[in-house]
Every structure is written in C-alpha cells, then in structure tokens.
Please model this.
Amino acid sequence: MLRFNNLPKIRNIFSPALRTYKTSGIPELTEVRHNIKRGNYAELNGKDVSFFESLIGPTNLLQEGADDLQGYNVDFLRSVRGRSKLVLKPGTTQEISEILRYCNDRKLAVCPQGGNTGLVGGSVPVCDEIVLSLARLNKILSIDDITGITACESGVILENLDAKTREAGFVVPLDLGAKSSCHIGGNISTNAGGLRVIRYGNLHGSVLGVEAVLANGQVLDLMSDFKKDNTGYHLKHLFIGSEGTLGVVTKLAILCPAVSDSVNVAFLALNSFEAVMQTLKNAKRHLGEILSSCELIDAPSLAASMENNKLQSPIVGYPFYMLIETSGSNAEHDMEKLNNFIQLVMDRGDVVDGTYTSEPSKMQEIWKLREFISTALTKDGYCFKYDISLPLRSFYEIVKVVDKRVGHLAKRVTGYGHLGDLNLHLNVSCEEYSPELYKLLEPFVYEYTAQLKGSISAEHGIGFLKTKYLKHSKSSEAISMMREMKQLLDPNGILNPYKVLY
Model:
C-alpha cells in the first residue's frame, strides 16, 4: 500500500477483522408509535394455518410462540415492529402462487420478506400481516459462461450469487454493505443502488427479466436473455423498485459483466467540499472508463466507523475523505492513469494526503471503513437514517444545516455516500429514540431536499417510513397513476399494505 504525502512508504496499518454486529432492544409496535389503523383484512385462524401446513409442510412455517418469530417482525435498524403471528417459507414459485391465491380469496394481508436488511421499514409487517419469506428460493439456475447472463431464484444471498458468478469469470453488477445477508430478489424489488452505480448503472438496466407472482396467484413469466427485447411494454420494470406491492419476484435474469483483472483503491483526504467536487470532476475526466466507484466519507462518519467497529484508518484528521476505486483489464495502464490522476489532484491542492493499493486484503480493509459506517452509527444507540439524492453543489449543505438544527440532541450528524451518483446518506445518531429529535428531522429533511430539487429516496425505496413524504418527489398525477396500477394488479390490497402508497 502506497502512502503519499511527501515520501511514499509501505504501511500495514489495519486492525483484525470487524467484530460481529449485534443489536439489542425491541422497538415500540409500529401501530402504536405511528398511530396506524389496521386495514380491513381478515383475521388469521386455525383453518388458514392448516391449509398452509398442508401446502408447504409444518416445518416450513413459524407460528406465534416460536423463538425466532420476533426476528421477522423487527427491521434491521430496530425502528419498526409488527405483530405477525405466522411466517411462511415456501420453496417454489408454485407454492407462492397457491399461498397468494388463498390469501387473496380470504383477504389476508401478506408481507414479502427477503434478507430484511432494508432501512425504510418495507420488509416487516406494520400490523399482523403474514410474513412470506423468500429464503428457501435460493437456487442459482444458470450462468452463461460466454454472455455472463445469470438466472436465479429471488432468495439467493447477494454475496453467494457474486461468488458463483466470479467462479465463471463474471461479477454481479451490484455491491452493498449488506451483501452477506440481503437477497437478490429484495435488491430487485427495491431497485438497490449500491457502490458501483457509477460504473454499471442501476438494476433497471442490468436486469433482463423477472418472474413475478401477482396477488391473485397468477405467475407472470417475464424472463429474458436479451439486452434488446423491444416487444411492447417492458413490464419487468413494474416490479423493479415496487417493493413487493405489485407482485412477488421469484426469479430473475441479470447481465453480469466480466471480472476486472486490475483493481485499485485510493483513499484520499481533502480539506473542503469544494475540493471534493473538483476531485470528482477530475476523477470522471482522467480515470474515465476504469472509474468504478467514488465514495464520500466525512470526519464524523469515519470516527464512528473507527470507534464503534474498532477499525483503523490510514489517514485521520481531515474533514473529508474520498474512496476511489478503479477496475480495468490492464494493470500497467490502470496504474499509470491512477498515478497521473493523483499527481494532478495533489498538484492542484485539492487532495492533501492519501494512500492507494492494489493488494486485495488491504483494499478490503479500506472498504470496511466505508461499508460498515451504517452499522457503526447504529451502535451509538439509535440512528435516524435518510437516503437522499441531491445536486452536487448542494450535496453536503444539508448535513451542516441539520447539525445546526438538532444541536445537542444528537450524538453525531454525518454525511457519507455514493458521490459518483449523487446519493447522500444523512445520519443523525443519539443515545435512544427521541420523539423531540424526530420532530426536528421530519418532515424538515424531506422538505429541504425537495427545495433543492433532490429525491427523498435514492436507493432504499419508500417502504413504510417515507409514505407520507412521497409527494415531495412525485407529482399528484404520478401518484394517482401509481395508485391505479396498484388497484389493477392488487385490487384487494393484500401485498405489502401500508407501504409506498399508504
């Protein structure tokens, strides 16, 4: 690993692996905290449970009283909690079809759930919906060793899918901090963005087709092996990002690019956000086709990652940091471009310190500083998280405004995220959930974002927690059309109720 600031030198500066993340404390019921009135759905009874047992077997469902039922009712952030009495774990598309057909006829509400790593309360029940776990749909169906087109079921864990495609010489065009537990189907259903949108684009471009089950049990086969398939309406896009409210994604086909032979990571220190903007501009211009990620980390975010995750950073003491990754096919060519870029931004005075490496283990340690910020901030006690898109010139402004607004009520106010695609993760941590702090943050954060012509959700969706703020990013006409789509595909409203359009 090369450190540059005066004389380059080799340093081995990292601590042992990150400790396992654990959470404690059970949040108040969502119905109570948010004053939610239960929809006009049927109540689960013994006959219903008997039907589901006959369909998927008694070992593939959890009922009230099961030790691990609570894990399906509480979200990753411990911010929302439902009271579902039944979790179903079907193993095939046909079983899901039968379950939904039955629930639709009975008007039993259903909450589809993947890895339950979402940040907006979209994957857990709000009231007593039946949880439909996709965990058993975990087969990788095919990987084409020439085209890279990969077909799989929706319950495949992202990290496992990536490992298998890499064995064939390809890489999944999506990488998330939660990759060890999130499901690819959940990624599709929320249109997850991740760390390399700047290189590969979002999932609307990478996903070639899906199989989805509608509320009435109808299986819609929209699978495709073609990037170009211009035959009528592109219905697959209805399910990418619809958060399980229009149908349950059960299979998908995704185009995976070739693994890069040459990967480098640079970790840079900067003294101002103006310098950050200029460095991004020069990274896009001078790294061009090999630029695969461009991340921003502010000082409070790095401090949280180091303190709460017991990590070390090669550089400290600056207000801003950038993590820049390059991926290409020619190591000599890529390193020459990276060296020229670093020389340029240092000569300009935009970058004042930094380090870079092509060693896999050291790249992984640098990436930990960025990827584990989210969990580090939750270890402060409780964390309000906002996933927004903002114009570049206003990208960091909201962090300073919010910091001044909340004052001593917050332990940390931080801003980090995907600078290359203008996605900021605004975080406000505190010792425990505070209604006073909540009222200072919402709806202020969303109103301020709207004033800047930004988006209230960049990559995590609307879920339950952002439903009343959708109006800040969508016109009334657009929302009305979304309601019409929901009514057409799910007239009884059984699929993930209280989410997105509630």
In short: The first strand starts at residue 2 and ends at 4. The chain has 18 helices and 18 strands. The two ends are 51 Å apart (CA to CA). Residues 5-24 have pLDDT under 50 and may be disordered.
